[in-house]
Amino acid sequence: MEKKQTSPLVKVVLRDGSESVNEQVLLFEIEGNSYCASAPRTHTDNNAREIILCHRVKPSADDAETEVGKQVVSYWEQLPRGEEQDRVFDEFCRLYELRQQEKQRREMQAAEYLKLGKWQRFVYRLKQFFRAVPAWFASFFKKIGKFFKNVGLKIADNAVDLFNTFKNGSWSTRVSFLVMGFGNFVHGQWLRGALFLLMQGAFIVYMVLSGAHWLSLFGSLGEVATKEVYDSVLDITTTEHIDNSFKILLYGIITIFFIFAFAYTWRLNVKQCRICDEITRSGKKVKSAKEDLKSVIDDQFHKTLLSLPVFGIVMFTILPIIFMILVAFTNYDYQHDGYNNLFTWVGLQNFNTMLSFGSGLSVAFGEILAWTLIWAFFATFSNYFLGMFVAMMINKKGIKIKKFWRTILVMTIAIPQFISLLYVSNLFADNGIVNAYLIKWGIVSSPIHFWTDGTLAKIMVLVINIWVGIPYLMLITTGILMNIPEDLYESSRIDGANGFQQFAKITLPYMLFVTGPYLLNSFISNINNFNVIYLLSGGGPARADWGDMGGYIAGDTTILITWLFGITTGAEANYKMASVIGILIFIVVSVLSLIVFTVMPSNRREDDYS
Amino acid sequence: MTEKLQYEQAVEFDVDLDAEALSIEIDAPESAAVAEKIEYRKRIASDQPVPAKKHMGQTAKNRIANTVIYIVLSAICVVWLLPFFGIVFESFRCESTGLAGYIFPKKWGFDNYVRLFTDENSNFLKWFGNTLMMGLITSVVQTVFVMAVSYALSRNRFKGRKLLMNLMLVFGMFPGFLTLILLYTWMSDWGLTMENAPWGLIVIYIAGSGMGYYIAKGFFDTISHSLDEAARVDGATQIQIFFKIILPLSKPIIIYTILMGFMAPWGDFVMATFMANNTNAGYNVAAGLQWLLTDSMINEYYTTFCAGGVLVAIPITVLFMLLQKYYVAGVTGGAVKG
After folding, report:
1. What's the pLDDT tens digit per position in A379-392?
2. Which domain holds residue B75?
3. Chain A hits for B38, Cβ within 8 Å
4. Which string of b and e fits A287-321 if b means at least 16 CB within 10 Å?
5. At the top level of CATH, which class does the domain A350-603 belong to?
6. Domain spans of chain A?
7. Do A110 and B183 touch (CB under 8 A)?
8. What is the pLDDT of residues A72-119, one digit of tens each?
9. Which among A294, A398, A535 is the nearest to B66, CB-wise?
């Protein structure tokens, strides 16, 4: 028996038929089944035998409608009276006890926590986070182990099921093992049958015509790039292209996708035949093709809705990303374009080049990564606080024409970013307006190199990003600020709090709480903020000491995403390294999200505060 | 009552499973959050309404504060609007075409606008047409896709739902630009790059649009389930519920999605440049106008760029200001729900 989780609110139907909503609920597993036991709070230890046992269906589609309580599976009553019941009951009591202890411990923890100051709390949470890290890793590996175990079990289950289906199934079902959809045809479900048959036909034709070819070359990504062919009629030698690594890799992935899809459909086909058999055996009628058609717009409507968008996502997002992940393990670049010169698998070599300490590229990578994070941090928080500040100024009681101020700021959002960014970039050019006026007024004697001085360029992109971002933040925060209950301010003012204290003690905690997820999102989008960096500074000033890659020399303001762009668009495009950078961006982003989601309390139950 | 409880419970489970899927130890931070909540409640409870005292200096102080705020806000408005006036002034400058060291033109005129449409290098009409076409087609189809995905994910609990959402979350963390390397080759096989880049971009925008379901899903989540139930009892099919009940209630979010879909191509610089691959006729306005500012062109075309910028900004700004209300609702909702 393994304790699975505790859930704060579960409705339970007691044995006498009355319902009770209960906080003291245990969910646990006995031999793979989930059960929940509940002890109504009013019950004392004396009649703790009233602890109710009910079967908890797995949370699923029907969850909202059924049966959580109604289906009080009388597991308890099915048990042999006496000893077995007592054993299970004792187990419940033990778990209940554990749960109580756990609750007490948490309460004590909470009490301790309340005594801490703001910063101490943050430190505490951070500590908790890092304390949890080893446990994560442990549970991560445990989960991986469990995952494979589950996959193994599932395959075994399926195999057993298939075997049984074959053994017990009708003749039509058995034929369906070879000819997909046959069983459906026999049972009159011509639509499903036709679809299955079509799938099988398409799969066989595809595999014979090209799938097998791509798959056989997948391990080497092609052997011969070009061949000289002598044409005896025209008496010339032409170069013929044989293999294309790019296509082999791409169609190899597609073929593997297709094989999985086919295997799934085949399994579905067998399962449906079994279900048909069962239904006929019990004397009912199977769903007709007409009913199938109707379900497309009725109970299966969500599948209809999802089909096309999900197909788009799989083909145009997931497939390309898997392709690019694999490219990171090849030597695909402008020299090995896959057409004139094949590329092939090189293992972890690219990651090695990028991350090995001390070499030119890894130095560049380290600095660019550091700047990317610094940039994202300052860009996010400077916008956040200044935007909130502006919103508060506009919101302040007694300020008139609020709408006017807001409209002006909102208008700047409407104008496409590239126009304003390109203009501002040229405003600060060496021969731009700003320098011209500075010289004219005698403030400086020679132009300030806003974009060619590394540090200055960094400051400039951050400052101009504030200019870009404040209107957005003003918009977002205005509404939320107005939701803060006015009486909080009122009473704090009476208590003698000044404006700053009000901000620090009321506004800021509330805002951080509510906009926590937004902050994370904007941090991530700033990591990938191509437009601001590229259109303002172009990633420059170039750092010659980093050397070039893919014909592109990264610069002081280059962030990972503009680096990626530079590497792939140059004449010496270096796709393998671009993929490596892409994967590293993914790792950075996902690790950050994981940390933030754990440390910030605000991501759960946002309603609590309002 | 019952459904609500069960629904809450289902949500509860969703959350727990989520945390499990990410293999996060949630205990400690959760208790911290609970503690904070308790404290907050206590604080509210102890707040006794007390009649406000009026200080003598209060009004004067307030007046000074307000004056300072007016000054700051005016300054902000000037700083924020200055570049736009700058662009407009530059666009009317006739005496030179490159960067100039002053704001007000010495000779005013429409030369740059004329050049924008007649110059051999500037293909502005084509760029504008490309972008407009992309905006119109993408916004419509994308909205259909987004509504479909977000409705399906918000209203139904089906097998594989969690998997699908997690997949989209994880793959969304890869930089989208990465996919272009493959997609470019792909699109060029179908002849949808270079001068046909707009069509290729339409395909790419639309195909990926299902990933942006978060905001609309958050909106659908807030529509009461009892509506569906009632319709279900009356014998409505799912498709009828979707079209006749949910969609009419979702006007704000539909308009928001359309607006976002329409505006995206106007500002998309990366994809447009990449797909057009140095073919002038395949640019959108962003790629095209940026091209006028490349090192070899800027001295001749800087003011032309400004004229183009003005012509692009005007219709977009007007549209945006008209639909501002919906934008604000969408953005704010998105920020709160993440």
Report:
1. 999 999 999 989 98
2. 58-118
3. 110, 114
4. beeeebeebeebeebbebbbebbbebbbbbbbbbb
5. mainly alpha
6. 2-114, 116-168, 170-347, 350-603
7. no
8. 334 444 555 556 656 666 666 666 667 667 777 877 777 777 777 777
9. A398
